[in-house]
Design brief:
Rossmann fold, alpha/beta, binds NADP nicotinamide-adenine-dinucleotide phosphate
Length: 354
């Protein structure tokens, strides 16, 4: 097969192309915008493998994804599948326009390009958090007019509907990972956001409070005692996306989620143990009267995660279970030990300087 990918220089994309090159004979056409990053990726493969990797310069925010005519001619009519992973993974309200430019308009541009190139299948990577403020996640499109926590979620919901509207042009499957964390075997993660942004914020806070001479005070994070965080290891997500080449069904949504997510209280405990600190706790909104200035600073540093610290969502992943059945990929069973290993791997390699 000839496979066209966007977002292959990212956290998930890096893992996915490693799978596709190591485990198949397919040729990959990687859309890149940063030459240095693309070359670094290429250099991690053997000379023989590199013959199956083709770099295509572009940017999803431009019409036709900014492809040169020469490149378009070479690949027209030859691409079997597009994996669309490229996105801006940030939650801030002040990035709303940029989020829609990259995630929505960018998706429109790659869809149009896929139609122009005569692509047969389009695999769209969305997020489980298109669930918005509901407590139950289903494997179907959500209402566009429902309430969402941030412009990232909104841009991804709108994009799913957009992708769906191209179903008469090619086969469409939508994949929705929850919070992607490090490799389940090594803990390795090339990410600075979601769990990693949260851990970094706590690490910076610890350094600042120590510097200011904190004396065993407890700092409260506003959340929900029974709130959970749905982590999925990057290798699990990449394995499912790889398998999709042969098994994904047309017009189907796949939630790639954890059936037994840990509580935020447990996660905070494990992070604190890794950080050798013991002065953070989670309290419910209603229990909080007056936050100290340090607590306000702490909650401000993690405010983009606030909605997620309060929620507890159950996701149906029946379509994903059917996709992996009998394939050798086990349905996710992420142990406490694995999550601790993933957390410890981050603090072992990326510690903020004192
Ligand atoms: N990380 C998570 O926890 C998570 C959870 C659920 C779903 N997802 C979804 O999974 C996908 C991959 O996420 P990730 O964590 O791997 O993200 P990431 O590490 O931030 O990578 C984003 C990728 O998108 C590319 N990109 C961004 N803007 C682009 C543009 N204008 N033109 C071309 N390429 C562009 C980036 O290229 P550069 O290298 O040039 O910047 C990079 O390859 C996204 O669709 C995301 O929404 C992620």
């Amino acid at each position: 097969m000839n496979i066209f990918l966007t977002g292959s220089t990212g956290f998930l994309g890096g893992k996915l192309i490693r799978n596709l090159i190591d485990e198949t004979d397919h040729h990959l056409y990687l859309l890149f915008r940063n030459e240095k990053k693309a070359e670094k990726i290429i250099s991690s493969f053997t000379r023989k493998q590199r013959n199956r990797i083709h770099l295509v310069q572009g940017d999803i925010t431009s019409p036709d994804c900014g492809l040169r005519e020469k490149d378009k001619k070479i690949i027209a009519g030859k691409m079997d599948v597009v994996y669309h992973l490229a996105a801006l993974v940030k939650f801030e309200e002040d990035l709303r326009d940029e989020l829609f430019r990259v995630n929505f308009q960018g998706t429109k541009n790659i869809l149009n390009l896929a139609v122009e190139l005569g692509v047969k299948k389009f695999f769209h990577v969305s997020t489980a958090y298109t669930v918005g403020r509901r407590n139950i996640g289903v494997e179907a499109l959500y209402d566009r007019a429902a309430e969402y926590n941030n412009p990232y979620e909104e841009s991804k919901v709108q994009s799913e509907h957009l992708v769906d509207s191209y179903r008469d042009h090619m086969d469409i499957s939508i994949f929705r990972p929850a919070i992607i964390v490090g490799d389940s075997k090594t803990g390795e993660a090339d990410s600075a956001f979601t769990l990693y942004g949260f851990m970094r914020a706590l690490e910076v806070f610890k350094k600042k409070t120590i510097r200011a001479g904190s004396t065993g005070q407890v700092y409260r994070i506003i959340g929900a005692m029974r709130g959970t965080s749905n982590f999925v290891p990057v290798d699990y997500v990449a394995d499912i996306l790889s398998l999709a080449l042969y098994r994904a069904e047309n017009e189907t949504v796949y939630n790639i989620t954890n059936p037994n997510p840990p509580t935020n209280m447990d996660i905070l405990t494990w992070i604190q143990q890794a950080l050798e600190m013991n002065d953070l706790s989670i309290v419910e909104d209603e229990g909080v009267q007056d936050l100290s200035s340090e607590e306000q600073r702490l909650n401000g540093m993690i405010d983009v995660f606030a909605a997620y610290l309060k929620s507890s969502i159950i996701f149906d992943d029946g379509n994903t279970k059917r996709l992996i059945a009998g394939s050798g990929i086990e349905h996710l069973n992420l142990s406490e030990e694995s999550i601790r290993m993933i957390i410890n791997a981050y603090f072992g390699t990326k510690a903020v300087p004192a």
